[in-house]
Amino acid sequence: MIYDQNYQIIPFFFLFTIIFSSSLRLFQKYWKEFRNLDPHVQIQFVSRVVSCINALVITLAAAYVLLTDDKLYANKLVYTSPILTIAYNLVFGYLLYGIKLNLTKK
To answer: What local confidence, expressed as pLDDT, does residue 7 receive?
Structure first.
């Protein structure tokens, strides 16, 4: 059950949280101009970086399914695949990360 692809929302939530925290620290450590920014602007910038990563991965997964999965065209309304299930979990993990970010970084 721990490796069931239907239960990967929480690991993706932690993945986005780790990407956010590590990106913030790396930018602050290695980018002089970033350190001079207001802390709220830093958080907004890193949040947008994480958003771009999410968008890129979801777009690539959807394009892969659209281009390679022949079963999609046979059943367009109710269709599921392992890649789409992972993409859904990734999106919901990202949404939880966004909620957490809004609640804690004010």
So the answer is: 67
Distance CA(8)–CA(58), nearest Å, equals 15
Euclidean distance between CA atoms 22 and 17, whole angstroms: 9
Chain segment 26-61, per-residue pLDDT in tens: 999 999 999 999 999 999 999 999 999 999 999 999
- At 31, list the tokens: 């980018």
pTM of the predicted model over 0.85: no
For residue 46, what are the contacts with CB-CB under 8 A and spacing of at least 6? 20, 23, 24, 27
> How far is Cα 52 from Cα 49, in angstroms, rounded to an integer?
5
Long-range contacts of 43-46 (CB under 8 A, 24+ apart): 43/101, 43/105, 46/20
Q: Are 19 and 46 in contact (CB under 8 A)?
A: no
34-64: string of b/e by CB count within 10 Å (b at 16+)? beeeeeeebbeebbeebeebbeeeeeebeee
